[in-house]
Amino acid sequence: MEKFLKEWRQDAMNKHQYESAIFIGDKLYAQTNDPNDAFWLAQVHFSTGNYSRAQTFLDKHKLIEHSPSCRYLAAHCFVKQAKYDEALDILGDKTPPQLLGKHKKSRRRLQQTSGNARNGAQRMGNGRLDIKGNSEEAVKEIDSDIKYEAEMCYLRGLCFSKQNAFDRAKECYMDAVRIDVQCFEAFDQLTKNCLLSPEEEWTFLESLDFDTVNAHSTTDSSQEAAQFTKMLYTTRLSKYKNPADFSNAVESLSQHYNLASNPDILLSKAELLFTQCRFKQALAITAKVLETDEYNFSFLPLHLACLHELHQPNALFLLAHRLADGYPEEPATWLA
Description:
By secondary structure, the chain is mostly helical. It is 69% helix and 0% strand. Helix 3 (35-47) runs parallel beside helix 5 (68-80), helix 9 (166-179) runs antiparallel to helix 10 and helix 13 packs antiparallel against helix 14.
């Protein structure tokens, strides 16, 4: 019956039928009393925008203290409600100093065990998995806990940024990426908000341990995934420094991973052209992408800047009106 209910629940989620998912998920949790099913049900409430109900559900079942995933979700509920002080009460106002080193060692241990014989794992008294166990399930669960710890650092940074404490936010974002190099949202906050200077960005990138990336398969696959991740992150850095390294990363991603026409790669190319004052070439790229994806908002600031530099007020005027009609709340609309 549990398998049947889980499949029904997942099918409802795949179809975005959230009320059905809540209805079935509630019955499944009543049968299993499994914290994972409770977390799943809270996630569905979160997906519907019912943040108060999701947070209350987690608190009612006393899941916040014992599970990083539940603690993260509860804090995220408060963030969505703009209750940043309450979120920080759950997250804490600083990253525990022992967290970085401990999780770095754990990730390396997981890489070593993920491809070996599986011996099972046990829960310790504090609720965390004993890393002595080498089962595949244990590997995945420890890896998941590490990722949620990183995401909590990201949320902590988001709370500080909303409170205009940008220096503290920057440190939290950096800690998030140090704990889990795949925490892209934290890395994106650092780069798109220019919280680091160009030199600091490149120094930070080189300090990251991409070898902790685990593809959950062979060692070669993990090494390739690590290099791929580093190249992707390289394309997000400031184009005012190390343009040769940037060009090498873009060329490799384009040739070996079929990303030559990917919008993010094209945006990075256009940004490099803009920093070189090659506004026509940059505009040609942004215009081509916007022809097929007119409201790709990540392209609009650069596109608008190119139009301004090339003295095209008519195009700016028309675009600004279209944006005002269709997306009056978007920041790019007001920029236009």
